[in-house]
Amino acid sequence: MVLPDGKAGWMTLFEAEGKLSGQLWMVGAPKPMMQLERKDAGLHFVRKLRVGAPEYEGGPFTGKRIDCPHVAIIDPDNRDRILVEQQLPQPDKSVKTLSFHGKRMPPLPPRPDLATVKFGEPIRLFNGRNLDGWRLGNPKQLNGWAAVDGELRNTTPKLSFDPFSHYGNLRTERTFMDFNLTIEFKVPPGGNSGIYLRGVYEAQVVDRDSKMQGLHGVGAIFNRIAPSEKAGKPGDEWQHYDLTLVDRHITVILNGKKVIDNEPLLGATNGGLMSDETIPGPLYLQGDHTAVSYRNIVLRPVIKPGSASASE
């Protein structure tokens, strides 16, 4: 989904024993689609949203969450495209209508044989001296990122894990499809960041003793795949990720231990830069949570038959 503000979303629908249910993923945990029903050739549902003025330019809306009706239909010109109208009741009793859309993702490819995958020459994404090749995902936010002593360091006073901040996330100018990425990270005790592969799938960045564990802990693909074991290190220690993304399957090696073994990715991570899994995307680092440092960021693109590189 591409939501009215341009941010990424992901809609999943289920039907079991004739009963329909669904979720809409955006930021944080997946939100259930309430009062979901088929009616008049459309799919009707309700989401609770804030509709007050943004807390700051480009920031979250404010006020109490209220019921906002939605109607989704299949695009008559493209059955793999969905069109949604969203009703937003306003303080003056008027109703504002917003439109957004989405497209059906293709079926998950077969599990790749990683022994046969060929990787290109390594690309060092951070030169250790400056932010050449990087920019803020949202230029309206504050930039806490700088090159310091060979590290890509984010400095922010924020300590909470809530998903909104004056400080911005950082992305590469270049985009990539499938690849192997090695990267080191360090968070303070209780710190929180994330590495979004292709801007879509988040490898969680917290310390071993974080309040976030399992699906939300270090070694996880956030809210999608939990690590098989607890392989993280304490805060203020450097940790090492070796991440291989091929054909919508992910392998995660954390500090030398394989904690996710070529497992399928069943959708985008909340808070991603985009949710389309079929196109190249950037490496995207969270800076809107707490302070964090990265270094030794090296990517090797997958070489598909007939092409020289997977980068764009």
Structural overview:
The protein is globular and about 55 Å long. The strands form five sheets. Strands 11, 13, 14, 16, 19, 20, 21 and 23 form an eight-stranded antiparallel β-sheet that branches. The chain folds into two domains: 10-103, no CATH class; 114-301, Sandwich (Jelly Rolls), CATH 2.60.120.560. The mean pLDDT is 91. By secondary structure, it is mainly β. The protein has no helices and 23 strands.
Summarize the structure.
The chain has 312 residues and is mainly β.
The low-confidence runs, each spanning 5 or more residues with pLDDT under 50, are none
Beta-strand percentage range:
35-45%
Distance from first to last alpha carbon: 23 Å
Q: What composes the largest sheet?
A: 8 strands, antiparallel
Structural domains: how many:
2
Number of helices: 0
What proportion of the residues is helical, as a percent range?
under 10%
Shape: globular
Layout of strands and helices, then pairs:
Blueprint: E1 10-16, E2 19-25, E3 31-32, E4 34-39, E5 42-49, E6 52-54, E7 61-62, E8 66-75, E9 78-89, E10 95-103, E11 123-124, E12 134-136, E13 145-148, E14 151-154, E15 170-172, E16 179-186, E17 192-197, E18 201-206, E19 239-246, E20 249-254, E21 257-264, E22 284-285, E23 292-301
Antiparallel strand pairs: 1-2, 2-3, 4-5, 5-8, 6-7, 8-9, 9-10, 11-23, 12-15, 13-14, 14-23, 15-22, 16-19, 16-23, 17-18, 17-22, 19-20, 20-21
